[in-house]
Amino acid sequence: MGKFRVLVKGIVQYKENYLAVERWYDDRIFEPYQWEFIDGEMEFGETPEKAVERIVSEKAGIPVKADKTLYTWGFTAGEICTVGVAFLCDAQTDEVVLSEELHDSKWVAKEEISRVITNKAVVQDIERAGLTSQFDLDDFGKVDLFIEPID
What is the rounded average pLDDT for all residues in the chain? Predict the structure, then answer.
């Protein structure tokens, strides 16, 4: 039987900016460092909200409050099925203290997110969640309302 794991992603907001972090992946790929949002694995017994708050604190040194769920994702690799939940997190400060696994960080405006985060799947997810300037309600289909006039 396959195994499951749950990832949580913290899209950290401070005022009008969002925290992007740069992480090393692999020297064998074209861009071994890539910008992304903070994520990590949920521990047994944690709620997703507490997990994302812990992970952001551990990796960026920022106390946050998980505000709302933005989107989910999933994939299977081998015998492991991974499910992810992304949260919008409110930061109490913009002072970042990175863990050793992260290389760099920067606060970016909403309009810059899709230029900084290069993972196409993440960009599509955050556009659907309404976090980039490219977001449009027409992405979800349009609902036409027809109201009959009262005589």
Answer: 84
**Nearest-5° Cα angle at 94, 123 to 114:** 15
Bridge-based pairing state of the strands 80-91 and 3-14: parallel
pLDDT digit string (tens) for 7-53?
999 999 999 999 999 987 665 656 668 899 999 999 999 999 999 99
pTM of structure: 0.80
